[in-house]
Amino acid sequence: MDWYLSGDEPAGVAALRHQIRDYLVRHADDATLVDEAELVVQELVANAVEHARGPVWVNLSWLEDQPDLVVQDLGAGFEMPGDEDTAPGQDRPDLFAEGGRGLFLVTHLAAYLDVAARRGGGSRVETRLPVTRAPSRSIDPPRPVTGALPGLDEASPAGGFDRESFLRALVVQMSQALEQTAGPDTAEDVVAQVGSAVGGQMEAEYRAARRIVGRLSPAQLAECFVRLKHAIQGGFHVVDVDDDKIVLGNTRCPFGSAVRTTPALCRMTSAVFGGIAAHNTRGGASVVLEERIAVGDPGCRVVVYAGEAPAASRRFAHRYLGPASSTDPEDARDA
Length: 335
Known about the structure:
By secondary structure, the chain is α+β, with helices and mostly antiparallel strands. Helix content is 36%, strand content 17%.
């Protein structure tokens, strides 16, 4: 989940803290531990808003037992103080937060705290919140077999679909998914289903245009990704391709400047790329959004891995398992 704070509305920190607390309470295995997690959120977000004096992006991902919180800003940046910063006789360093709290408090409540400078300026602070998630079901939606939009006959002579067709497809598929699903996991079902449906149809258009039967190679996958993003006015390009991964860069978001206030739109890119890659890779695929225009980076950097992502990136990856073997394109080619 992603949030955007403009930096000139301090009241937004309290509102965001309450949103995150509500989310943690709904999913925590022990809700009594949420108070400490909420305090960590409050300290890091309030510090970023106070000292950055500009846009702040907050991301919360809960891919393992405990959730990871990332706070990014475009401020002057700062470094973690070392032991040499502690004056003789002090029990703790006097950090920037009022009341003697701030980073010192966070380091005592959270599992870890990492502060790094961003390539585009400012700081990136990452921590793991001290609360454990209750078990939940896994979601791997089936590829649609009827009613997929946009239709192949809507492809332009130059290849791909235009922005109008793409956005209309999102609305229609979301409406259909909402009508077919119910329960507490509806929102997650919708995002996964829409990405799978639209990406699958875009893959079908690419196959028809290139007359390809069977599993797409890594180079063909990369071409397919760039082709479909260019069709909706994205600025994607291939950085590197090998048997294990595809690295893509991007200079222009198809959603325009609005993506900076709604960074959750990036999950659509992940779902489309990941769904197509999983459909063509034994063992599924994983997508890591290493850099994003949506959170102030100068460009996007997306890495699509065959199978699981490397251990160092695994907890930041979106995992896509792909279809059952009966719908594997390799089976279709060999039939």
